[in-house]
Specification:
With 784 residues, the chain is of the alpha+beta class. Helix content is 33%, strand content 26%.
């Protein structure tokens, strides 16, 4: 069955690519500071655009996008006053009836936007004055991709605040750079060339402009990096910049120059992909506009990214790697470079305004190595948690953890103070198969979506000196997430305060997503609140919350799956499944398991499920509690207890509850099969010789007759296969070659073997399960 899903998933990825969803552009959700560092602005997808003071004040919504908006940029503050600009994108062919909209659930790491003809509007928000409209549409322009808006690449302020620079697509599909004069309300082209795609930036001196041009013509004379000024035609193409690794927007983003503060030099990265070379070779260059020279600094076979100069321009820091990378610190003047730390850094943020501190975001390791985990019902999510690290400039090796326990995205330093803006998302570090499947696609308001912890991401301003946190939550859902964070930190009174604030915020919420917020928060908060009240010694209130959770958590499932909307694909993943009541109760237990694990309360979780198993009234409830309890035992590396529970409780109950494969099908057959059979993975460790090798020989010998006893009730190929897999592994552990060979022959003759194990057998199945989170993430990104 898992082999079937593996064969199904790969063609799915290919079909999505062929359908035109690539090239995609990832959204940039950076929280922007004003020029004085006292205010921030951010976009929150369907929720709108917000501004807030960095200290104390709650966010204020300044713009609500319409339903047909495809993408919204972050707000950009004027370099001279308190004005703001931002952009919104729509389909250029809106009359075709194929209008898009912002995703119902925003990806904390930035949504992926597919290529399509786009029209965008640039909005100006004036400083508040009585009797004047605040948000005024300034101009509309066309571009070939909504990613220009989503990634905040379409528009910039002129350094003097009197005009705007912007990207526009011409009738031939080429993109150029233009200027809009806010007083004259006129536009003119300021860069003489165009490209298939074009990005631009303004140097820190406010005088030089850099354009990164991508051209799909192999003999292009314009592709590369150009430097010039707005009022002169003397543009300079930087030597060695022509090979950018491609002409798509993401290729150009990777090559955008990073200037020193005095604008005397800049660094940039090129990518060379030869037919006989894999992967591409990345080259880091250093360019000097006067006297127009460029030289190579280093080469690597991994992405070179997150380039930042020390404020005095003496050092250049960067990461080398994909999702995580190694930190490199270069001193170009001395021709020196050193590597610092391990391959754990997700982001390098550069130096604070005074150059005294460096900041990083790193992966927070899970308690158990995901590559060695045997808890196959609760899969690790390595992206769930990060650490914010600060190091002194004098010794970058001495990093200090100043914030952790949440997913941290789009961090950046304030331009004036040692403060950072970022998004902080509360996510469980272990998730069930159902949770991963629910994240893949379908209707965001599907009732089943309430069966998993759904992330939200409040904005945060963090003081690197004092450690003070200024949360910028916009609704009750985000305040609930902050309560979860404090509960995880054992700050119970603070957690309860945020839960109370969430209740009050929901009562006053009149946003377009009010119902969804209440639905999610009600499902998401009750069990957490009960745990918090327990810790506060308020047992009666905790019991009431727990009863409310049990009475209201399970959703009402429609009698039949909802048909997809016109011109929309059928739901994928677990969307629109038709679960039984027993399945829903089991999924509730898996949700509870995610709650305990998200709070680092594994001992509390183990006690909860032990009590639940002791008090279970039905076989279905007993099986569900036992299944989850096995996972807690495995996560605590209590293998002997796991083996006893799996053999004496899970195995007989699972054999009785098992449904033949012919009973699982329907419109979402693969997801049904995974959810129907994933519980069997709880026994998988007992089929592995390397797992049994760490059990006492006497215990393995005692387990064998109990498994053989179940052969009489094994009336299905899958049941017989599971029992024989254990008997084969146990015989190997005990050195019983005849028994091992007999079991191997039965396995080879079993019709279910290939469907369950695939071509690589048991090791291949274990490898697939451990790699499943990365596969789910790839499919999720493609589908988005």
């Amino acid at each position: 069955m898992f082999a079937r899903f593996r064969r199904f998933a790969l063609p799915l990825l290919a079909s999505v690519l062929l359908a035109g969803c690539s090239p995609g552009v990832r959204e940039d959700r950076t929280i922007t500071f004003d020029q004085g560092g006292k205010n921030v602005g951010f976009q929150h997808g369907r929720e709108g655009i917000f501004v807030a003071e960095t200290e104390g004040a709650a966010p204020t919504k300044i713009f609500q996008p319409d339903d047909d908006v495809l993408a919204v940029s972050a707000p950009m503050w004027s370099p001279t006053d308190k004005r703001l600009i931002f952009t919104t994108a729509r389909r250029a062919d809106r009359k075709s009836g194929r209008d898009g909209s912002l995703p119902a659930e925003q990806d904390p790491a930035g949504d992926i936007h597919g290529k399509q003809p786009t029209e965008y509007t640039c909005w100006l928000r004036e400083e508040p004055k009585a009797g004047q409209p605040l948000n005024v549409p300034v101009f509309t322009a066309r571009c070939g991709h909504p990613g220009y808006v989503a990634a905040n690449l379409a528009v910039r302020w002129r350094p003097d605040g009197r005009g705007l620079l912007f990207i526009e697509e011409d009738a031939q599909g080429q993109h150029g750079l233009f200027e809009y004069d806010l007083q004259a309300k006129s536009r003119r082209q300021v860069f003489p060339h165009t490209g298939t795609n074009l990005l631009f930036d303004i140097a820190p001196d406010g005088r030089q402009v850099v354009c990164v041009v991508g051209d799909k013509s192999e003999a292009s004379k314009t592709a590369g990096i150009w430097v010039g000024t707005l009022d002169a035609d003397a543009w300079w193409r930087v030597p060695g910049s022509a090979d950018l690794g491609g002409h798509e927007i993401e290729d150009l983003r990777a090559a955008r120059p990073v200037w020193t503060r005095d604008a005397q030099r800049f660094a940039f990265v090129t990518a060379t992909q030869k037919k006989d070379e894999k992967p591409a070779v990345r080259t880091l260059h250093l360019a000097t506009p006067a006297p127009r020279t460029a030289a190579e600094l280093t080469r690597a076979d991994k992405p070179i990214r997150d380039l930042h100069w020390r404020p005095d321009g003496a050092r250049l820091g960067y990461l080398c790697g994909e999702d995580t990378g190694v930190f490199h610190l270069a001193e170009p003047a001395a021709n020196r470079e050193k590597t610092i730390g391990e391959d754990l850094y997700c982001n390098f943020l550069g130096w604070d305004a005074d150059g005294e501190r460096l900041a990083f975001v790193a992966r927070q390791p899970l308690p158990r190595d995901p590559a060695q985990s045997w808890a196959f019902l609760l899969l690790p999510d390595v992206r769930a948690r990060n650490r914010l690290l600060i190091a002194p400039d004098a010794d970058p090796v001495q990093t200090k953890i100043v914030f952790s326990g949440m997913q941290l995205t789009f961090p950046q330093w304030s331009p004036k103070e040692a403060k950072l803006s970022l998004w902080a998302t509360y996510r469980p570090p272990y998730r069930s198969w159902l949770s991963y499947l629910l994240a893949l696609g379908g209707d965001a308001n599907d009732p089943l979506r309430g069966l998993t912890l759904r992330p939200s991401d409040p904005a945060l301003v963090f003081d690197a000196v004092t450690g003070e946190r200024q949360w910028k939550a916009i609704n009750g859902r985000e305040k609930t997430q902050i309560g979860h964070y404090h509960l995880m930190r054992r700050e119970y009174a603070e957690a309860w305060s945020w839960y109370e604030q969430a209740e009050a915020a929901d009562a006053d919420d009149r946003s377009p997503t009010q119902f969804v917020h209440r639905f999610i928060r009600g499902r998401d908060a009750l069990f957490f609140q009960a745990l918090c009240l327990d810790k506060l010694g308020r047992a009666d209130e905790a019991g009431a919350k727990r009863r409310q959770f049990e009475e209201t958590f399970l959703p009402d499932i429609p009698a039949a799956p909802k048909a997809p909307a016109p011109n929309q694909p059928a739901p994928f993943g677990a969307a629109n499944l038709q679960p039984t009541k027993e399945q829903l109760l089991h999924w509730r237990d898996l949700y509870v398991a995610e709650v305990f694990l998200s709070l680092d309360a594994i001992e509390d979780g183990e006690r909860y499920f032990r009590d639940g198993l002791k008090n279970a009234a039905t076989d279905a409830d007993r099986l569900s509690k036992a299944l989850v309890l096995t996972q807690f035992l495995l996560l605590r590396d209590r293998r002997e207890e796991f083996a006893e529970l799996a053999t004496d409780t899970v195995l007989p109950l699972l054999l009785r509850a098992w449904k033949p494969r012919t009973q699982w099908g329907g419109h979402n057959q693969e997801a049904n099969l995974i959810l129907a059979y994933s519980d069997g993975l709880s026994l998988l460790p007992l089929f592995a010789a390397d797992f049994l090798a760490r059990l006492p020989e006497a215990q393995v010998r005692a387990l064998v007759p109990r498994w053989r006893k179940q052969q009489a009730s094994a009336d299905d190929d899958v049941k017989r296969l599971g029992i024989d897999l254990f008997l084969q592994a146990a015989a190997e552990r005990l050195g019983q070659k005849d028994e091992q060979q007999a079991a191997a022959r039965r396995i080879a003759a079993n019709p279910a073997r290939t469907d369950i194990l695939g071509d690589k057998g048991l090791p291949g199945l274990i490898e697939f399960v451990r790699q499943a989170p990365e596969m789910f993430e790839s499919v999720r990104l493609m589908l988005r």
